[in-house]
Structure formats: C-alpha cells, structure tokens
Amino acid sequence: MYSTLHFVPRRSDERGHADHGWLKTYHTFSFAMYQDPKHQQYGPLRVINEDRVSPLTGFGTHPHREFEIFSYIVSGELEHKDSMSNVEILTRGDVQLTSAGTGISHSEKNPNKDGIPVHFLQIWSIPSQSRLKPAYYTRHFTDEMKQDKWARVVALGLTMYATMLSSGKMLEKELNRRKAYVHVIQTSSEENTQGAKVKLSDGAGEELILGEGDGAYVAVNSSSAKLFVENVSGEEGPTAEILLFDLDA
C-alpha cells in the first residue's frame, strides 16, 4: 500500500542543548551557539526551544523583527513585557503570540518567588508577509480542551494543534499541507526522560515511535493524508502532551 506520509525522527538527545545555570534549553533547530546545517528550518517553522527558566531570572529586553513568536506554557509562570506596553503573567495553558513585524522589543522572565521554574516552548515561524504591524495576542486552553482531542491553538501562517493524549488513546488528523512536524513535550523531569511513548502512523505501514522530547519531520505525499497519533505507554501509563504543526512548504 502507498505510504501517504514519511517520518524522519528528531531525537531529544540529538537536539542542541545549553545549560546556563538560570536557563536549561533544548533546540530542535539551529539557534544561538548551536548550529547544524541538517536542522535549520522546516517550512516556515524556524525555532522550537524547550526552555526551563529558574525563578527570578529570564531573558532581558531584546529586539525582534519579521518573526511570529509563540510561547506555549507547560508549567510555572512567565512574565512578558514589551515595547507595545503589554505586561502579562502567563501560566499553564496560555499560548502567547507576538507578531514582531517591523520590530518590537520584549522581555520574558520567571517572576515566581517560591523556587518554581517555568517550563515553556518558544516557537518562531516566518510570516507569509513582511513588514507587518507588530501585534500581541494571548489565548488560554484548559487541559480539558486538549484532553484526548486536538485543540487548534495557533492559526496564523502555520497551524498548531495541541493534545493531552491518555495512554491507550489514538487521534487522527487530516493533513492539508505539504509538511507537518510533531513534538512530544518533555513533561517528565529533564533528568528523567522515561515518560510517555507515542506512535505515529499513516495507516499504510509507515510508523515511528517517539519519546518525550522527541520530534518528527513529516513529509505529506497525498492531498488526503491522515496522521494517526497513539499513546502507547502501556496500561495506566503517563499522558502525552503533543504539539502538531501543519505547514506549507
């Protein structure tokens, strides 16, 4: 049977990694001091950084332009301030977008005084139009909104879905674009990556098993391709938190 999808794994332990003391970060794509010509960009998707920031530290004010920048909060608190006068403390379930356009400056810090780090994913994509007016949005998604179903959390240039997939459950998603990318969030501790296991398949024999922190490049070979995502962690295994990006070439 013809495979409608092709998977290429991006393993967690092969990602770029830096430990700055206050920041522990993993880079799916080339970023800062980590540069790998095999992992520069995928469609408009340019950055997936899985960050853990210590309390009362963070990224000082710095500029951006011509990127769409998303923050997906996994746990803890993230304080956002920017040159558009936005000030907000983001928590679990928040998805914040800064459309940098012609240029903005912002800072992102962990304001927590109780010793709790913030774990979030910083995601950058390249906009379909340049020189846009800067903009800022925040949306909140409860765990219930993502439990064993796809929640569309971003629809701007790329489309991003999120799910909290219980062990033994399977979801499908029709992919309408040329590419997709899957990322399994490392919700277990950074030192313990023995968390959820996820199986990707196309229903025609193409399969791939991912662990927490792993990702997968997905080439879409058919206009009616379906991606099947199953949590195969075993009986009473952990829930898998998964992001799916539906991408143009």
List keywords for this structure.
249 residues, mainly beta, seven-stranded antiparallel β-sheet, six-stranded antiparallel β-sheet, 1 helix, 2% helix, globular
Report on this structure.
By secondary structure, the chain is an all-beta fold. It has one helix at residues 143-146; strands spanning 5-10, 16-19, 23-27, 45-53, 58-64, 68-75, 78-82, 87-90, 94-99, 104-109, 118-125, 135-140, 151-156, 158-165, 170-175, 179-184, 197-201, 207-211, 215-220, 225-231, 240-247. The strands form 4 sheets. A 7-stranded antiparallel sheet has the order 2-3-4-11-6-9-12, with no helix packed on it. The protein has a 6-stranded antiparallel sheet with strand order 1-19-16-21-14-13.
Offer a quick outline of the entry.
Pfam families: Pirin. This protein is mainly β.
